[in-house]
Amino acid sequence: MGCDASASGSIDAGDLTCISNLIFTPDFTCLARHPVSNNPPRLTLPSELTVADGKVTVTVVIEPGDIDINATILALDYDENRLAFVDEFGAVRYYGNPASMRSVRFDPQDLGGELKVVIADLIFTPRPLIAGRLLEVDLQVLEPVSGIVAGAVGFSDNPPASFGAPNGSSIAGRAEVLTVPLFIDGFESGNFLSWSLIEP
Fold first, then answer.
1. Tens of pLDDT along 138-196?
2. Structurally, how many domains does the chain consist of?
3. Closest Cα partner for 46 from 159, 169, 139, 127?
4. Distance of alpha carbon 172 from alpha carbon 198, whole angstroms
5. pLDDT category, 62, cuts 50, 70, 90?
6. Mean pLDDT of the chain, nearest integer
């Protein structure tokens, strides 16, 4: 696989950390897979969203587990019939340590994962991503029907969420998509089944 620098069998966040190591240390040997942890890294979404000023704010939280990770790649999918992303300044906010690479790509044609996110610290001495809020994304609520708007937000498998370690390896982790009810004026407007993604 052309960009599979860590030779893990897939292109993921581990390849970012591997390539960074190879740039700074040409004779570096990347590990394909980090040993499986009893407390793996995890990404989660909130259990509820509240509409305010015609918008909802989606917060992605990271729990690194017991292994230092310095890179993650994920994609967010939302119900484009009820929600919309407006590509404007301030619509995406990053938290945690000021990582060297923080990017969100909006792809309106990809209805299975409209927002592609890359967050990584790839400096010579990389700093691990810290637990807590990773980023927030504002989504507009489209014109409500009879005062009720229902929308779903979740992680996509295009690409699947992945994690990278400073030693250039891919780390098995989880992206847990909770059922996300959308609240308007205190009333729950809908629950949506979501899916879990577990890296091998």
1. 998 886 643 434 446 888 888 889 999 888 888 888 998 665 555 544 444 443 333 33
2. 1
3. 139
4. 8
5. very high
6. 77
Question: Domain containing 79 — which CATH number?
Answer: 2.60.40.680
Note whether residue 140 is domain-resident. yes
Tell me whether residue 87 is in a domain.
Answer: yes
- Cα–Cα distance between 59 and 56 in angstroms, integer? 10
Let me know if residue 35 belongs to a domain: yes
- Give residue-wise pLDDT tens across range 17-42: 888 888 888 788 877 666 677 888 99
Side chain identity, residue 176: E
Q: Dig out the tokens for 18 from the structure.
A: 């591997």
Whether residue 60 lies inside any domain: the answer is yes
| Domain extent at residue 140 | 13-194
What percentage of the chain reaches a pLDDT higher than 90?
Answer: 21
Structure tokens at 46: 């909130």
Nearest to 17 by CA among 3, 30, 35: 30
Q: What angle do CA 141, 143, 144 make, to 5 degrees?
A: 90
Please say whether the beta carbons of 153 and 139 come within 8 A. Answer: yes
Q: Half-sphere exposure of 48 toward its Cβ, with a 13 Å CA cutoff? A: 10
